[in-house]
């Protein structure tokens, strides 16, 4: 294997690793956001004040709607 081929192979491997890591991080972030929204909906349905829901969940005002 030539140096160029080896570098190309290593670059491909590194690119795949970075892509997998980014995908995993995005998936975890999306799951966390969805869970916060689920909790916020439940809190609002049980009469908890919208400002308190935002404070506890860390959601943005536009995310917390009734």
Automatic annotation (TrEMBL):
A single Gene Ontology MF term assigned here is: double-stranded DNA endonuclease activity
Gene Ontology biological-process annotations: DNA recombination
- The annotated regions of Basic and acidic residues compositional bias extend over 1-13
Check the record and name the InterPro entries matching this protein. Rpn/YhgA-like_nuclease
Q: Where are the transmembrane segments?
A: none
Where do Low complexity bias regions lie?
Answer: 14-28
The entry's protein name is: Rpn family recombination-promoting nuclease/putative transposase
Which species?
Citrobacter freundii
